[in-house]
Specification:
single chain; about 190 residues; mainly beta; 2 domains; 4-stranded antiparallel sheet
Length: about 190
Amino acid sequence: MPAAHGQRRPEAGAWTSRARGAVVVAYDTRTGLPRWRYARVGHRPVAVLTTGEEVIALWEDGLLTGADDRSVRWHRALPDAAEWLPAQGGTGVLRPVGHGILAVVTPHRVSAYRLADGDLRWVLPARTGCAFRPEGAVRHGAALLIAQPCARGAWTGQLVALDDLGRITPDRTPLGNDLPRPGPNART
């Protein structure tokens, strides 16, 4: 998402972004002037999320794009998006869960991506006979609580708590979500 038409990037300042028709536009929060635009020919964004210096856009065909104020850095396709996205419209699908992780909540699964590079960190499928409700998710402290209505079962099983490391359960051993360290034998 480089500056439009070769314009120089404005000096440091806060900015936010939103969908305007078929384009994602970032605006300087101080002046209200556009800083950059991004469009995909023949497609339109249905949800846009600005977190710090990152912009995540969900497009009507189920493609996610991750960008900063210089360029689109990654693309990810959501599975089965044509099945649910037209009726759902993108409301509540993009949920930051802390420490640079984005949860993408769909009826069939919650997928978590590292904002820096789009790396898939974890996936939580909905229980059999249940479906997540992205629009009904709420934050409680560091946790994201997501409704998972089921045809049968206790109400306690119809609510899932997540954070950047995945489902919150007693005694979990989380995976690290940081970027890999450079150099040989960087993993420990």
